[in-house]
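ingest -> validate -> predict -> emit
validate: passed (alphabet ok, no gaps, 462 aa)
predict: started
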Amino acid sequence: MASKPSIPKGTRDFGPVEMARRNYIFSTIRSVFELYGFSQIETPAMEQLSTLLGKYGEEGDKLLFKILNSGDAFDDGFRTALASDATSNALALKACEKGLRYDLTVPFARFVVQHQSELCFPFKRYQIQPVWRADRPQKGRYREFYQCDVDVIGSRSLVNELELVQIVDMVFGRLGARVLIKINNRKVLAGLAEITGHPELLVDITVAIDKIDKIGLDAVKAELLDRGLDEKAVAVIEPVLLLQGSNAEKIARMREILADSETGLLGVSELEQLFALVGGAGIKSEVEIDLSLARGLNYYTGAIFEVKALDYQIGSICGGGRYDDLTGIFGLPGMSGVGISFGADRIYDVLTGLNLWPAYAENQSTALFANMGTAEQAYILPAAAALRAAGISCEVYPESSKLKKQFDYADRKGIPYLLIAGSQEIENQTITVKHLKSGEQKSVKILELPEFFLSLRSNTAG
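emit:
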């Protein structure tokens, strides 16, 4: 007996309606990226595992999908490593030379270094491709999902951060979803680690407080203690995580708290400058400083971003930040960049939950030509070609069959118009246009059919 077909957990099939909706998201995001002068690139699904390991922190490394070497995964060298005290990363590199990309930012840094002589800096790129994470599947969290990344590299100006905020604001304005844009700065967090007396535990602090939305403040405090901080250090961090007030009030308070940290004060200054730019840019979305925002990835060094849907309960739908030396790992030091990633799958869930899909994001065809027989088929085929030439999507039912069957086909596919031509229509050089939802029908001259549908489109748009 054949096994029941299935797909791996954390992955999904997408049917025609889902794909039409996803393409609506991608085209909306792409159009905004291009308005700001970003150019598209693509990188391979697989990267050298050495490219990926060590870039995402301890937690991220655990979520990398590693690809076993073909035929030689258990050679003598691997057995020797297995018998030694080698680290798990060393073992992985011995058994696996490649891995599926975890995000698009590290491959982008590799791309920039590899192609630096061909690029014009500052280099503004966007990328819309799938990524993979060996995570535990749950609502809003998948093992295979698409990211829509936009980055500028080769400039330290905060105007770049401002443009990212503007892009987020414009994208979700066009999609019709209200969002909250949360911003912090990793220098502020580094300063916080300094004043606790544990600058060496910055990564541990950020990994712990990055979980505050998932596990709550008490669990974060317990994890900070587990990671080597003492009660006194946790007591310094806790009030910062709970800090309330306006953005200006938060900045003023953090300047007091971080008075003894040069790095921390630089982060506060950068936040103040960025919010001055945001304040003059006419941003419609809510933008706030969130001092509990950490972004667990190790490579961030400046501003960090996270975007939440205001009217639908789900995790962050965008995230990103400033990285000052990600390319240095690949031999090109000092190339600062900043970027943000749109999580297309979570955005899909938000638009579905809030019923924000426009009608055109679902219907692929505007009209179906009914097939009434050989003579009728010969009559309608040139009309279908004329509609397509005018940019009107349509289908011709392939077999001659009962009209009820063809009507049901159009209804199931959500095709709004059924076009019928029998002997009388052929004689009069017309076609009957039936609107399936209202039942209304109209006789239209066959040569005027493209003009008829273009006028419908114009009236709908108006």
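DSSP finds 19 helices and 16 strands in the chain.
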